[in-house]
Structures are given as structure tokens and as C-alpha cells.
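Input record (Table S2, row 431):
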Amino acid sequence: MSENKRAAKLEIDGKTYDLPIFSPTVGPDVVDIRKLYGTAGVFTYDPGFTSTASCDSTITFIDGDKGELLHRGYPIDQLAEKSHFLEVCYLLLYGELPSPAELEDFESRVTNHTMLHEQMVYFFRGFRRDAHPMAIMVGVVGAMSAFYHDSTDISDEWQREVASIRLIAKMPTIAAWAYKYSIGQPFVYPRNDLDYASNFLRMCFAVPAEDYEVNPILSRAMDRIFTLHADHEQNASTSTVRLASSSGANPFACIAAGIACLWGPAHGGANQACLEMLREIGTPDRIPEFIARAKDKDDPFRLMGFGHRVYKNFDPRAKVMKQSADEVLELLGVENNPTLQVAKELEKQALADDYFTDKKLFPNVDFYSGIILEAMGLPTSMFTPVFAVSRTIGWISQWKEMISDPQMKIGRPRQLYQGETLRDYVDIEKR
Ligand code: ACO
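Output record (acetyl coenzyme *A complex):
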């Protein structure tokens, strides 16, 4: 972050305040208001943080107008095509692409941490059978804070490293077990001879009664889904992890907070909500009715999988995901999948409608991901857990960056208070 020679001038009641301007390596300049309350006695107001940079970071950059997403400078489409998830994890975590030896070492460390402490099985068993897998994940990941005491001292760099590896490694096991529990099948233990995505698929779909062969096409598609969701700078769940961690809290508990935030339909829950919407539409002839509802101000219905807080152009991940959906469905011999047909026609009609183009509402990453996951055999309730597995690396990388930042402070926003002013307590018999 370099301080610009320019300063923003803010005038309040005839008094002028100079606010330093910082220039990022790429992206809009940032006005530094940290001393504003101290000097001018005012707060700024920005619910939803639409104009607020909450931290400085070197991990991910998004240009929402261009529809560009870079991880450590590398564009997401190149990473999705040429790289794979664990290499992207290394890149996000350590800042550079690994050498072959570094990658081998990293993959081996992740692979050797995939098993859960056996007593954690009791946590799964404590849930009702019909619990949503995200509810189980929030609980079980939070419970990790009670199991891995040798990796919770956040002031120790080595312990931070071990906690990071544990989270990347164990998250697929936790997500797959949440699924197995919900369908009443035995838990399948991870296998060290399989790659990350294949291991996850096997833990979801294998049963002890017969052998399970991972389809390499599905494994590649799952790896690409993981890669496309790996990080997205200061989104709601990542900011939740940063805020929770800013108090120095246990890392596993902080990641559980991120999972809780991701669950919401405006964030990670959108892929489940999107597929449910496509199914509800059912046939292309009903699309105009749903588009009309999405445009109706008095109807809370929104086109799920459309729109994004940052992208005011195509979400670059959606393009790769659409291509992936075509490939997977063709290879599985279900290219005439009715949900995919509805999705394609809906995209076409929405993009031809001024309401969506004027408001810059384009398909986001979740518009097509659910179709692929469904074709793989996962129920809608597992879509957001897959997102949580992917985003864990983003949460951890941002958490590690924050903890190592000498400027780190506890996050403590202020407010525009609109409540009662001072008043005296009224005894109950007088109310
Ligand atoms: N369908 C219909 N109208 C929409 C949609 C949509 N999907 N999204 C936004 N709008 C409209 C709003 O009604 C609003 O209209 P107005 O200005 O006339 O009031 C305008 O577009 C701006 O919408 P906001 O909600 O203010 O935009 P915001 O940036 O806060 O919301 C969000 C972004 C939450 C993603 C929103 O577009 C949405 O709800 N989309 C559907 C859910 C979804 O797909 N979420 C996934 C996000 S990607 C991810 O988490 C990986």
C-alpha cells in the first residue's frame, strides 16, 4: 500500500480535514478515514460495506466491471484450465505457484491429515438424521477447537500452519460424513492414494458392500468446482472469519463462523436455492412468469444465481462453470437434462431483458454449479457444503494474512444510533 501525494478534503461545518489517499497495485484508490473520528468527531456510514475497504490484502483481486478475478495475480480461467485445486490452495496460502517438490510436499501434508479424531464420530451421531449438512458442518468444525489443542496458539507460526493444513485436509471428510450420516450410510474413511477431489467423491458415494471406482471426469469436474470457489476476497463469510479472528479466537471456531455465514441463500446457499428455483420453473414455457416475478417490486422473489455485489459484468467463474456443466452432462449422457435446458433458456431471456441488463445482473458462479453437482448424484442440501470445502482455503489464507499483519486490530464497527435518548427507568407497577 503506497500513500499517494493527493489527499481527499472533507469539509464539515466550515472546517476542512485532509484524508490521505492510498493507491493499491490495481483497483480504485482508497481514502484513509482511520483518524476521522479522532480529528473530526464523525463516523462514516456504510451498512453492507459497499464502499469500505476493511483491510489491505495481497491474495485476491476482483474487477467487477471487467468481470476479472485474479488469485495472486493469476486469472481464474487460467487456473481452472491449467492448474488444480491443491496447487491453487498452495498459491493462495503461500503467495507463489509451487515448484514440483514444494507441491509434492504440500499434497503429502494435506493427504496425511484427512482423518478425523475418532471421537468426533460421536458429534455426528448426536445430530438428528434430517439435520442439514451445513448445520452439522458448523457444529463439527467448531468442535475441532476442542480436539486439536496443539494447533490453536495463533501467535505461533508453526501452529497456525498445522491448523491450516488440518482444515484443508479434514473439511472434505467432514462434509462427506455429514452427507453419509443424513442418508444413514456408514462413514467412509479417506484413502491416501487418491487425489483431493477423488477422495471426496469416494467418501460421499462408496459403500462397504462393494468397490467404488472414481470416474476421472467427475473428479476433474469436482476439482474445478473447488478451484472456482477457492477465494473471493472480502466476501461475507471471509469477512466473518476475519472479524471473528480479530479477537484472537480459536481458528477452528472462526472457520465455523464462516461456514455459518456461507449457509445463507444470499451467499453460498444460492446454489441450492438456484437449483430449487430451476426445478420449480420446470419447463421453459414458465420462464416469463418467473422473470416477471423477479422484476415485480412487490414480490420478494429474485432470480437465484443472478446478480452479484461486486460483479457488474459476467462472473468469470460462471463462464467456466457453464462449460463444465455442458461437458459433465454430455459425458454422463444427460445433455438433454431438463434443468440445464431451463437454465440456458432463463439465462438467454434474462440477458435480453432491460431490467437485468440495466441493473447489471448477470449469472454468477452458482447459476450452473448446482446442475453439475446434481448430475454427479449429490442432493441439493450438499451443494453449500461443497462450497464450504472449497472456500476453506480462502478463509484460512485471509485469516493467516490477517494474523501476521502488524496493523491487526480487533474489528469494531461503529453505528448511526437511531434509538431513544437517555431516559429514567420506570418501575413495573407504573407501566
Ligand atoms: N433478481 C431480481 N432482481 C435482483 C436480483 C435478482 N437476482 N439481484 C438484485 N436485484 C435487483 C434488486 O431488487 C435491486 O433493485 P432496485 O435497485 O430496483 O431496488 C438491484 O437489483 C440491486 O440489488 P441489491 O440487492 O441492492 O444488490 P446487492 O449487491 O446488495 O445484492 C446479491 C447482491 C445479494 C447477490 C443479489 O444480487 C441477490 O440476491 N442475488 C440472488 C442470490 C444469489 O445468486 N446469490 C449468490 C451470490 S454469489 C456467491 O455468493 C457465490
